[in-house]
Amino acid sequence: MLKAKIFVQLKPSVLDPQGKAVTNSLHNLGFDKVLQTRISKYIEINFDSDDREDVSRQTTKICDSLLANPNTETYHFELEEIKS
Amino acid sequence: MLKAKIFVQLKPSVLDPQGKAVTNSLHNLGFDKVLQTRISKYIEINFDSDDREDVSRQTTKICDSLLANPNTETYHFELEEIKS
User: Fold this and answer.
1) N or C: which terminal CB in chain B sees fewer CB atoms within 10 Å?
2) How many C-beta neighbours within 10 Å does residue A4 have?
């Protein structure tokens, strides 16, 4: 079995209003060393397959077709073996 | 400067309805090797400080007080130096 560990992040040029809100809250709570906060999605998908090439191709398709918005987001992923 | 890379994940015992919905969508799209999907938050916070011990303590406080729901979520983080 393989696990795909996928990060879907806003492009650096895109404003992250949720991150901005967290930064403001943290300043209000007294955390004044905080400069910036970026909030992203982290997705783990378990595959019933040990074929790294095939799982990598499927994960790319999944990100392109469902998980990431190509207009505003980028993604990267790594594969990890799951010991069952 | 230091960057805290924080993962906030649902406890394994807690149902992840968003992940279940993604798994179902993927099956409908023909990705039948997908067994399970878990969706989590990944948060990066930049600190204007090089004191790892202090930043680590602040990040723990931030997770406990704002980012993670102690009833349903766990978190872990690592610190990384940012070259400016």
Assistant:
1) C
2) 22
Alpha helical stretches, state H, chain A: 17-28, 52-62
pTM for this model (two decimals)? 0.90
Asked whether the beta carbons of residue B42 and residue A7 sit closer than 8 angstroms, the reply is yes
Q: What range defines the domain where residue B54 resides? A: 2-81
pLDDT digits (tens, 9 = 90+) for B43-75: 999 999 999 999 999 999 999 999 999 999 999
Measure Cα distances from A56 to A41, A59, A81, A84, B84 in Å.
19, 5, 12, 20, 33
Q: What is the CATH number of the domain that holds A75?
A: 3.30.1280.10
The residue of chain A nearest to residue B67, with distances taken between CA atoms, is A22
Number of domains in chain A: 1
